[in-house]
Structure formats: structure tokens, C-alpha cells
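Q: I'm writing a short methods note and want an example of a predicted protein-small molecule complex. Could you take the sequence and the SMILES for adenosine-5'-triphosphate and return the bound structure as C-alpha cells? Please keep the output block clean; save any remarks for afterwards.
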Amino acid sequence: MEGIAFALDIGSSKIAAVVGEIADGELQIIGFGSKEVSGIRRGMITDVAQVTSAISQVLEQAEETSGYKLTNTLVNVSGDHISSLNNTGVVAISDRDKGVTMDDIHRAMDAARAVPIPHNRDLLHLLPRTFRIDDQEDVKSPIGMHGFRLEVDAHIVISALPAMQNIKGCTEAVELQVDEFIMSSLASAEGVVSEAEKDMGVLVADIGAGTTDVVLYTNGAPFMTKTLPIGGQLISNDIAIGLRVPFEVGEDIKLRHGDARPEHMPEGATFTVSPFGGEKITVGHRELSEVVEARVEEIFNLISKEVKESGFTGLIPAGIVLTGGSARLKGISEVSQKVLGIPARIAEPRNLNGLVEKINDPAFATSIGMLRWAMTEHYVYAQPQRGGFGFLKNTMDVFRRMLPG
Ligand SMILES: Nc1ncnc2c1ncn2[C@@H]1O[C@H](COP(=O)(O)OP(=O)(O)OP(=O)(O)O)[C@@H](O)[C@H]1O
Ligand SMILES: [Mg+2]
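A: Understood, no commentary inside the block.
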């Protein structure tokens, strides 16, 4: 598939925009925009005017750098309103001579999505995990296969409807049409892990400013997706409260001295900070590190709890892949390893071409991942129009409407 794709990452600390050109299955980054923003708390829009203005600015940056007029976008959804579950759909294969058709798959997916959805929530993703035909397990691509009964195990992600409506309101205010909403963790995973890791079993945690977006892959497909309402801002906040300094000073101290390994800090080593206009404060590296470590441990304890509660009991041989801006915190992989007992690696978006120096940072995993998501064929529930049938498609189709500016 060829074309231009645009993705907007609405994060708790920044809005990022990337434009990608896709040719011969390769992604080239040709446009970029980013703007720090308040008005988003824990992944949710709390100030529509601020967010709209920031989107308008990053859109302009992206259009200027890419030279394209951008009319359509992919956008992420995050927030602790997001929940996920797995369900099975079963149908009879309609034509025994032809074998499984696309129509059978649609009917099976439709059966799988028949779960009670609470008022004010809607399906965000309906993704096939694996198919079964009669007693044959682990069928990846059932089209044309013969049998009597087709079963699909599907992963379902449910989101609060107002969260998506608010995003749509902000983008439409700047004349950007949302083509697809993508859960942040699924997007980030596309940005940083390989198909081989998904097949082995891998956890991905995008630890941002306000949220930690988690997805667990087993046998190549998502098994559990979740947003935890906790991220790097809480670490900065703990430091600020502990030292009685403003949040910005806590953030600055974290970026300059933050390390989650108190045992690595020499006893008695200190540094000084001078909060605006205030007296100099002397801070012990080890004490600071203990504060940071406690919060980071909490994040991984919560991730561990989510995995347990998902009912998953297997192994995660490919370990955990940490991304998002907070993955740059020193010592984070050691804490992860200690709490979860699986290998951890820090990842930034992989295999990049184009404006690499701008986006070679774990904070851009979500935006780059959305472009990769657009490149792969996947089952799209008819969002954001809603209420329609699902269909297998490549979202790239919709980007052909974009014109060089
Ligand atoms: N070197 C670093 N050490 C520690 N923390 C860092 C470092 N660099 C960035 N961060 C933290 O990363 C966070 C921003 O990450 P990111 O841009 O991924 O968040 P976001 O996408 O805006 O928010 P979210 O995804 O949580 O809604 C901030 O809390 C920032 O302090
Ligand atoms: Mg983010």
C-alpha cells in the first residue's frame, strides 16, 4: 500500500504529530510537529480549547515540514476508562464447497462482539486473536479452509464514548477528520516490538507523563490491554512534595538526577537546588532515589496485578518492552526486572527512516506506531461512524484523499 498517513498522539504532556510516506512497505517520516500541552490529565482531555489550539499548532508544523495539506488523521485513545476482554464467536461455515469466506469471518466476529457494553461506552477495537475450524486450533488465516464450524477468539477493547467524542470535537474544530481511533498501548506496541516478540509473548508498557499504557501479546495477538492512570508526572510530583518545591522544580530534578536505584547512589552524596527565589536546598542522591524507586515499583506492581487479573498464567518469554518518555528514567529496567521477574528492555521507535533525529525517542512510540498500524491489514470495527459491520482493511486506503499542498 502506498500513500501519506498522518497520526496525532494526544499525550498528557505533549501533542505529537507525524506524517509518514508509505512506499513498498517502507515507512518514511516526512513531517513532524510537537507541542507541550496542559489540558490533558491522565490521557483524558480536560480543556477542549487548549487542546484544540495545540492540535492546530502541531498540524501546522506537520503540514509545513511535509508539504502536504492534511485532512484526515489517526488518533490515540488512552485513559483508565479503557477495559479489555476476550470472547469467542462461533458460526456455521455457510458454503461447504467453497470453505470459509470473508462473510463467515464477519459473522464470527459479529458473534464475538456480542458482549454487554455498559451505557456510555463503545467498542474501540475488535481484533481476531486466533481462529478454529472444527477441532483444528490456531488457524491464522481461515479463508478457503474447509469444515463445518468456524470459531474466532477475539480481543475486545472498550472505551468511554465521551473520551472519543471529545477528541473528535477537538480535531474537527481544526478540520481534521478522524479515520481511526487506536488505543495508545496497541499503537506503541506497533512502534517498538516485532512480530516475533508478539508470537513469543511480550508485555509492552508505554510509561508516559500521566498514564502507563499496557498490552500483553500472546501467540501474536493482544490478550490484555489496559491504561493505568499513573506515569512520570507522579514521580515529579512526589519529589516536589517531598522537597516542598513547585512541580516544575520536581520535574527538573527528576530529569537531571532521577535514578530508580538507590543502592547505586554513593552514601552521603548530595546536590543542591535553588527553587525560584528560594533558599538553596541540599538533597541526598540516595534519598531522592528512594522516592523515585518507590513510585516506579508501584507502576510495575500495578502492571503485574493487571496481568494476573487478566487470567493469563503463561510465560512471557520476550519479557517487557518499556517505552514512552518515562522509559528514559535511569534504573527503570532494573526495577521492572526485580518486580516482574522477566527481562526488560527500553525501546524507541524501530526501523526509522526520514526525520529520524526528531522522533528517535521513546516519547514518540505511540505516534510512529499509529503509522505502522495503518500499514498493516487489520480488522476495523466501523469506527468512528459506529454501528456498522467490521471489515478487514488497510487503513491506508483512506489516506489517498490527501493532496500535496
Ligand atoms: N530522561 C528522563 N528521565 C525521566 N523521565 C523522563 C525523561 N525524559 C522524559 N521523561 C518523562 O517522560 C514523560 C513524558 O513522556 P511522554 O511524552 O511519553 O508522555 P505523554 O505521551 O505526553 O503522556 P501520556 O502518554 O502519559 O498521556 C514526562 O513525565 C517526563 O518527565
Ligand atoms: Mg503517551
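A: Remarks, as requested: The chain has eleven helices and 22 strands. The longest strand covers residues 121-133.
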